[in-house]
Amino acid sequence: MEDEEGQSAPLLEKETGGGRRMYVEGCPGCAVDRRKAANPGIPYGSFIYVWIVTLCTALPISSLFPFLYFMIRDLNVAKRTEDIGFYAGFVGASFMLGRCLTSTAWGIMADRIGRKPVVVFGIFSVVVFNTLFGLSVSYWMAIATRFLLGALNGLLGPIKAYAIEVCRPEHEALALSLVSTAWGIGLIIGPALGGYLAMPAENFPNVFSPDSLFGRFPYFLPCLCTSAFAAAVLISCIWMPETLHKHKGSENENQSIEGLEAHLIDPEEKVEESGSLNTKKSLFKNWPLMSSIIVYCIFSFHDMAYTEVFSLWAESDKKYGGLSLSSEDVGQVLAVTGASLLVYQLFLYPRINKILGPINSSRIAAILCIPILFAYPYMTYLSEPGLSIILNIASVIKNNLAVTIITGTFILQNNAVPQDQRGAANGLSMTGMSFFKAVAPAGAGIVFSWAQKRQHGFFFPGDQMVFFLLNVIELLGFILTFKPFLAVLEQYNRN
């Protein structure tokens, strides 16, 4: 058994000549593989962890957008109303900038010490720094706490790897759709909480006194609720199983751990196992991975810019081309959208992916987004109740299409690398995505502020220019889903 164990690294599960699977005792990854072999069904317990951890990292990302406009106003940093969007963009960007700088390191760490320790530390950072953001008393405190929240939150990359590793191949589409569903719902429910719970002393004067903690810190309550949920998830992670293979007693077995940095920078790593030679390419030379990451980054840039613009546009005055909605109104729209995402991803997306595949479904979704975005600026001419109905329908369709695209790129990325590179690959993906999402809010805020000053421009006046530029990015992402830009793995050649 010791010889077999020694030969099993770094490929930790093997088929012997008789078809019998060999596992290493005491290895958490082998324990998970053994459960997968014995139980062909859906691992609901592990999927719950995937769901709540992803939700935990998504909630604080965009929960500030419904009240960010008012927060910047109350911090007295903008000299004019038209400049609020400019300053708001940098607060939104600071989170993604922090995550951009550390995501690859967190991915490598997850491949070194395991998925679970990185997940636990990331959730702890959400509890601490999201709470501090709600207590911000200055513009720079708000930026600093959001930056640290992003830099110390390495959750999404490892949890995507974890989702693939806890289930059998036939359930991978469902596993990654759970990640994108929880992610999408978090990006919707987060703003809904922010919209409903911000400024409670004004919205619920019978419950919250102006002299209370929530009166003095009007944006603390939604942050506190998110942090409380994160604290509950943190406690539940005590029982979360590890999936990383950890083998002892072989010289070769640590190559998948010690050589992770080499996977990023070396042209190839040759690993000898059972008399055969397996060649592992550098992640940067793995074009199926890198091309899918590029597509992912473009659509992530679009989604983040859209999320920022939607709340700013909906809450701005109608004389500037907005809808004059309150933060509570925006929260209600986003809550409806979040509920639709849950239904769509659990019951519809797996069937769509089975029929169309991740590439074709992403292409169709991208094309359908374009006319929807073109219709947004004209909603300012609608009145109630038609405005609410149309806005809700448009938001539901747009966000479900966006999640379809993101889920498709998740599937492509995680099937482009072996398990021992999956954490680093997802970390690299997160680095690129975080950079684009750091630029997106700042760029969207600047463009939005500029657009509101040109209400009578000749070419796409006012907010029409904002949504036109969003469509340009969407079209670029659509083009990049075709060859030669996107390298297609063998199993997706039908796409």
Describe the structure concisely.
The protein is mainly α and 495 residues long. It contains 19 helices and 4 strands. It is globular and about 70 Å long.
The major beta sheet can be summarized as:
2 strands, antiparallel
**Helix and strand composition category:** mainly alpha
Q: How many helix segments?
A: 19
- How far the N terminus sits from the C terminus, by CA atoms, comes to 44 Å
> Spatial order of the strands in the main sheet?
1-2
Strand content: under 5%
Overall spatial form: globular
Helix content percent band: 55-70%
Order of helices and strands: HEEHHHHHHHHHHHHHEEHHHHH
Number of strands: 4
Oligomer: single chain
Low-confidence stretches: 1-19, 249-279
User: Averaging pLDDT over every residue, what do you get?
Assistant: 81
Q: Over the alpha carbons, how many angstroms does the gyration radius reach? A: 23 Å
Key terms for this structure?
495 residues, transmembrane, two-stranded antiparallel sheet, 19 helices, disordered N terminus, mainly alpha, transmembrane helix, 68% helix, two-stranded antiparallel ribbon
